Amino acid sequence: MQSCESSGDSADDPFSRGLRRRGQPRVVVIGAGLAGLAAAKALLEQGFTDVTVLEASSCIGGRVQSVKLGHATFELGATWIHGSHGNPIYHLAEANGLLEETTDGERSVGRISLYSKNGVACYLTNCGRRIPKDVVEEFSDLYNEVYNLTQEFFRHGKPVNAESQNSVGVFTREEVRNRIRDDPDDPEATKCLKLAMIQQYLKVESCESSSHSMDDVSLSAFGEWTEIPGAHHIIPSGFMRVVELLAEGIPAHVIQLGKPVRCVHWDQASARPRGPEIEPRGEGDHNQDAGEGGQGGEEPRGDGRDEEEQWPVLVECEDCEVIPADHVIVTVSLGVLKRQYTSFFRPGLPAEKVAAIHRLGIGTTDKIFLEFEEPFWGPECNSIQFVWEDEAESGTLTYPPELWYRKICGFDVLYPPERYGHVLSGWICGEEALVMEKCDDEAVAEICTEMLRQFTGNPNIPKPRRILRSAWGSNPYFRGSYSYTRVGSSGADVEKLATPLPYAESSKLAQGSSSKQQPGHLLSSKCSEQSLDPNKGSIKPMQVLFSGEATHRKYYSTTHGALLSGQREAARLIEMYRDLFQQGT
């Protein structure tokens, strides 16, 4: 049987051993998205010399994926800089001239972001008629009033009544419906249109939240997400330019591409004595569901050092290389954690961290770009929104697989056409997005064309000449787009997810302070009396740190949340070794 051997070249040479005696730490960052790059960059700038970034895919960027077709750049992942006042992504882009070609129309201040604030949204029904502009405006005002109410439950400690089921979707749908039905001035035909528009707006909201349905989103926690003031900005040259700027200060040898991690073996100093090799795990997809993968495979064994030189963490890669480290910063998505947390960590995660992973939500939001030879929409149209009249009285929207296309909420017009050509960007989320990902391009293009013909009432709309779409849900390195606070979860779960391991006495979670503590999960009372100095004592603190958008309590789901979370975890280590680096100056 093939064995996985530790990377001994950098660990056993005299220089590296000398660094360890002086306390120079080795840090491994898992993931080269915004969080991982931000963490690595911050550490290197503060004097850390032994930093390695392991990226499973063939490129950096994570959920930033800019695709250049012809002269245009299309964003399959992150698209907007959300807010400008104090947003580190905005300041990085602005300082480097990335927003110089951003048009006024691409500086949207609206809550629901479009590619352009110019023009008007065209709300069309499946019967081929356009909803009058005044009806759309009246409904939009009403919906936004109710949306503002959803923020008050968290921000003002407003109690949630049982009828809402603590669900944003249930509360919003019923509140808007009641107001529409109680309006004495609207004729029944207008009321029916407005009732049907509720579902369309909730589909848009679901795409923004990356949830299957807004019924899944916690009402009591919804208002904790914080919007940064200022406009939303698009980067004409591509959001990937921000990623490249972050990576510029990182030496090329630090980042290893195509290097998926199989397992993080932590708390090695307190584990049983081990021999010199790690038996390889069985073959298979390292992203397979935890229920299928379990915790099979041998645990790693030490690298022959005496006890005081024992590495606290061993990072086992899919190619069987084992990289010893003092600290590991895990930036994988919540979707990956949900799939493989049982096999990804040895020993297993503490029960309260596992519970947080289960409670928090992550869904799939996909884009469908359609390029046409000529526009069939008018110059004043900035989007085409699909309103199904037969959904006026519907509850939660879950469609059978063959009707997945009904979850497409609409298509935005990419602006300006001089840059993009004649392109529409469709949005779909939830389980229906996963069905779409399984279809081939031809089938998706055909279905989208038929929808556009049906809703516009124009049977002569040609098929697009090109289609481009994302597939975040089925991507084994992401398993979703971004996170949200699901019904039953709260910001406290985000904090639990972000807490480093092993837990220090001062950061014990309430659920973890009971007699159910397990070795390697929570520091026992005996361990808590031992020194947590990085160079002294038997318990190495902050062996496994967690970052990524899902770990930021106020800015989850955003690129700035991801970047800030990476800087946050780097700051923990910088503070931990502050005295060491001050002595070296």
Automatic annotation (TrEMBL):
Keywords, ordered alphabetically: FAD, Flavoprotein
Q: Name one GO molecular function term.
A: polyamine oxidase activity
Q: Where is this region: Disordered?
A: 271-308, 508-540
Q: Does the keyword DNA damage apply?
A: no
What cofactor(s) does the depicted protein rely on? FAD
Q: What segments bear the compositional bias annotation Polar residues?
A: 508-518
Q: Bias category Basic and acidic residues: which stretches?
A: 274-289
The chain's coiled-coil residues are: none
Which GO biological process annotations does it have? spermine catabolic process
Write down the species: Crocuta crocuta (Spotted hyena)
| Residues of the Amine oxidase domain | 34-268, 313-574
UniProt-listed InterPro entries: Amino_oxidase, FAD/NAD-bd_sf, Flavin_monoamine_oxidase
This protein's source sits in the domain of life called Eukaryota
The name of this protein is SMOX oxidase
